[in-house]
Records
---
Amino acid sequence: MAKVVFENVYKSFKKRVQEESNRNIENKSEILDSDSSSLTNQAVNVLRNINLEVKDGEFMVLVGPSGCGKSTLLRLLAGLEELTGGNVYIGDRIVNKIPPKARDIAMVFQNYALYPHLNVYDNIAFGLRRSEIGETESNLVSDWLEPALVGLTRSLPRSMRYISSREREIRKRVRYVASLLQIESLLSRLPKELSGGQKQRVALGRAIARNPQVFLMDEPLSNLDAKLRTETRAQIVQLQKQLGITTIYVTHDQTEAMTMGDRIAVMKGGEIQQIASPLEIYNQPANRFVAEFIGSPPMNFLPVELTKPLTLINPHFRLTLPEYWGEILHNQGNNKFLLGIRPQYFFLSPESSHISVKVNLVEALGSETYIQGTLSNDSDTSITASLSPDTIVSLGESINLSINLDKIHLFDADNKVAIPLDRW
Ligand SMILES: Nc1ncnc2c1ncn2[C@@H]1O[C@H](COP(=O)(O)OP(=O)(O)OP(=O)(O)O)[C@@H](O)[C@H]1O
Ligand SMILES: [Mg+2]
């Protein structure tokens, strides 16, 4: 068990792009196909200034949209990619130049990569047989006697074969892991005889069996159906707590991030946007991106302008903020903001002075009803509200919504950074 530290980490890949082109990187990939005459290697930064400390025994979730660099960060830690800049520590040791095998890390990927010709037992035992488990000092018994006995009894029925002391250690470990994961009854099956969820547990078992210092998991549940995902999710969290192994878990699913992580690191475009506990990320998102990415359905954003003392004005509605916003807002250089409000903090209001919304879609889920629409006088500004399940609303209808003013967020309209409020 060990802490993991990324210190000012950078990673760039070489990409072949056309020289002296003013077009941006995305567009350059189009040129590649059409003209390869003046191609040159250019470094493309995929990770920038990554500073992240994962505590010993912590469950850290990396979350962010596709392509933001999550897998690359894991691969750097595993030693499968070389750093462009910065340092990576496992425990107190810098591992920048240490080969993957010597880093004492186990990785579980989205595709379980089980050996198809080996049964579950041997899949789990595979890594152990290549490790030092049960190895003793070289002596007559381990070097000569045991191999000879194994060889002599190999053709006998399974129960009569000689098992070396090392293989007995391995067997003990495989059985322990199998019982943790409740796959004892599957040990003699081949991978093709397993369901997706079972394969997933075998892959986890193989990683656990090695008893590594750090677990890395890269979207390990994305092949499972919704029910199995929820079950396996809970199981992984429970196991991690039981084993206390420092874990970094990659996902682009915000529900997974919220429910599994001790802390979450939200990434975008190769940079970390915020590192905090799930509730802190939810209640105090550092910027608009985090606010929108975490929470489902996502937060609504409405442009507003502040007039003193505390009135927010949008061409189609106005709100007066609670007093506690006074000090922080009056210290802002900008008076233009984005008002952020999560769907569940809208409620139907009898007063026509509030936010008027034209309803385009009603989704009655039973436990709540989602209303999607736009501001009645501004069809470009969309609104999603979660209302009580007994709400009766028809398509095309205009409804008046109020918002819970104690639940709003404000973001600077220019740089989209949250205005921090102490009261959360
Ligand atoms: N070997 C490589 N050579 C060049 N570019 C790469 C290489 N590996 C990754 N990239 C680029 O680096 C960026 C980050 O990739 P990465 O796989 O880390 O993203 P990710 O966050 O794991 O995405 P996903 O959620 O889709 O798995 C992407 O733009 C990708 O195209
Ligand atoms: Mg990935």
---
Amino acid sequence: MRGPDTQLEERDKQSMPFIALRGVSKVYDQLKQPVVALQETDLEIRQREFVSIMGPSGSGKSTLLHILGALDRPSTGTYLLEGVDITALKDKELARVRRDHFGFVFQSYNLFPELTAVENVEVPMIYAGVPARQRRARAKELLERLGLGHRLAHRPLELSGGEQQRVAIARALANGPTMLLADEPTGNLPTEQGRQIMASLAELNEQGMTVVVVTHDPAVAAWGRRLLTLRDGEIVGDEPVSEAPVLRAYLQVAEGAGA
Ligand SMILES: Nc1ncnc2c1ncn2[C@@H]1O[C@H](COP(=O)(O)OP(=O)(O)OP(=O)(O)O)[C@@H](O)[C@H]1O
Ligand SMILES: [Mg+2]
């Protein structure tokens, strides 16, 4: 039974941003001088958004992504996850928050070479304590969802780069995250395989997944709905992808390809 309190909580959850950063910065303490990788930043991201992050090399894109995904802690400021301050959590608690809420995809696929596709997808579920049969069933289902139902028993070296990245995406989804964070997910891929990866992420977003993608490539960024632009550790642009001048030339291509 859903009492009025539960309904109220549900409503609050929907109006509340999934993530809110307040005055969050990241300073790396180098021996001689500190490096400000991220200046004091305010940012809100809601559930079901599809955010692209662009900016020159060294502008703080990966730093921001790592903080969003609780892989790294801010040097200053407050991180609210569904309204709850997670800044002060102990390492163990933060690891749990990370496991329960976030899935990560990187430029290099980081798969275990000796494990099959389905076994690779099972790995995070082992850590989460999911029973073996359930694990196997979910891993298969995720790989099928990503169009790899015919590659379950292949090892990474027997897969194309695009296929390996789709295994990595399936693995990132294993524990049912709310948000998928991808750092240059197409960086090692030929154009067509990269396009397929973005089509997969767009489909997941349409099914309700919150997606954040860091990329140098405007053709990749154009798949998103909101574009954040970083420069020198600062968010200097935050606009709908459809209105971003730098992406104008790529929008029709993305729409045509996505149709
Ligand atoms: N662990 C670290 N220690 C010290 N400085 C760091 C560390 N990680 C990043 N930096 C510095 O912080 C700044 C931002 O780095 P970051 O990796 O976030 O950039 P980026 O936008 O992702 O760049 P790229 O496009 O090359 O991946 C850079 O000046 C970088 O040298
Ligand atoms: Mg980077």
